[in-house]
Amino acid sequence: MEKTTAGLDNFIAISVPLTGYSRVALLATGMAADYYHAVRRIIGDDRMNDFLSVAADILQYTHGKAPTQEREIRQQLLASLQYGPITRNIIQLWYWGAWLPLPDAWIAKYGKGVKGNENHFISPAAYQQGLIWQVMGSHPEGAKQPGFGSWSIAPLS
Q1: Smallest Cα–Cα separation from 122: which of 85, 156, 95?
Q2: How far apart are CA 49 and CA 152, in angstroms?
Q3: Residue 104 buriedness (CB in 10 A; 0-12 / 13-18 / 19+)
Q4: Distance, CA of 16 to CA of 109 (rounded, Å)
Q5: What pTM does this model have?
Q6: Which residues contact 141 (CB under 8 A, 6 or more apart)?
Q7: Which of 25, 47, 114, 126 gives the lowest tally of CB atoms within 10 Å of its CB?
Q8: Half-sphere exposure of residue 23: CA atoms within 13 angstroms, side-chain side
């Protein structure tokens, strides 16, 4: 398997428990490769490879057992000074389609050579495909309109 393909596969695999969406649902957004390449471009190859290695170890160790997997993700990724900000940004990418700047303290310790670490949408499609719209039972303003007369249907409760 090509290294880039393996990296993308690992990125999608860890994104499943991070977002709570299935692999198929994440792939259906059409954004997996864009998010993967954006994170790699911003944090760099070495940091991305390290992150994905830790993520792959967690997934292999836990074999998809939810309580154990959630605990390991919390302890090894989210609570980590090194991987926590990256992990949170990946979650936000899937939901918002935007990259938020990594904290200054992270940049000072781990971010030598980081490029593109400013608040920005990855692409117009990233905004439209954000998981937040599904969560809200809505649609992105100015895109994916629900159709004529949809205003007459009560919102989901």
Answers
A1: 95
A2: 49
A3: exposed
A4: 28
A5: 0.88
A6: none
A7: 25
A8: 8
